[in-house]
Amino acid sequence: MLVACGISSFIYFQCRALEAKLAASRTGPGRVLWMSSHQAIADAHDAEDWQAVHNPKPYEATKFQIDLIRAELSRRVGPSASIRYFTVDPGVVDSSMHTALDAGIKFYIKMITFYIVRLFVPFFFFFLVFVTNTSGWLNCLCPFSQARLFGSLQHNISAWNGAAATVYVCLAPLAFIPIFLTTAGTPVAQPDKQKDAALPLRLHSQTDLIGRNTIAATPFRTWPEYEKEASRLVDRCERLYQTFLTAGGKAATA
User: What is the model's pTM?
Assistant: First the structure.
C-alpha cells in the first residue's frame, strides 16, 4: 500500500490513521512518499510558528518540514519496519496550480515554448528577454528558458517526467531505494548512528536538455543542524494527533 504526502501535520494525521493498513500490506512493507520540493528552504522554517500560520513563505517552510519529518520517521522506525518513508521531488512541472495564472491561449503558448526551448534554447532565451521588456505576462517563461540554457535538470515541465522519482519509489525493490547516505558516500537503508553520521536522501526527478528522464539522490545537507528540531517537530505532530483522537472520542494510541 502507498500513501503520497504533501503537507506536514495534516498528512501526518493521515499516515497515523492509515498505519494499521499500511503495516498489513501483503506485497511488502507499506511505503509512504512525502512530496518535497527543491524550494524547501531551511531559512523559511520558524520553530515557534511550526504550522506556518504567520510565515511569509509557507510553501518553502512546509516543504522543509516534510524533509525533517520524513527523515526523523525513517530514523525512528529502522530498516526492518513494516512501513517505510521516502522523500521525492517532482521538480518544476506545469500543473493545475498555474491555471489561474495562465488561462486561455497563454497556457498553450507557455507549453509550446517549454518544449521548443529544448531544441532552440539560445534563440528563445534572447527572444524572450526581448519580448518580456514589452509583454509582462511572458515574463514567467524567461526563467524556464534560462534554466534550460544553463543546464538545469529540475525543469521537468511535464507531469510524466516529474513523476519519475515517485514511480521508481513505488515500484522498485526496497533494496534499490536509498534512504540515507553515509559519510563514506554509501547509500543505505539505515545508518549505524554510533559509527556514522549519515545524511537523509531525497530522490529527484530530472530531465536533460533533449528530454531524457533520470532519477538522482541528493543528501539533506542541513540535517545535522536540524536533527533535534526534526525530533521536536514529529513529537509536536504526534501530540496534536493524540489530542485530535481524544477530542473525537476515540482512545488515543501509544
Answer: 0.74
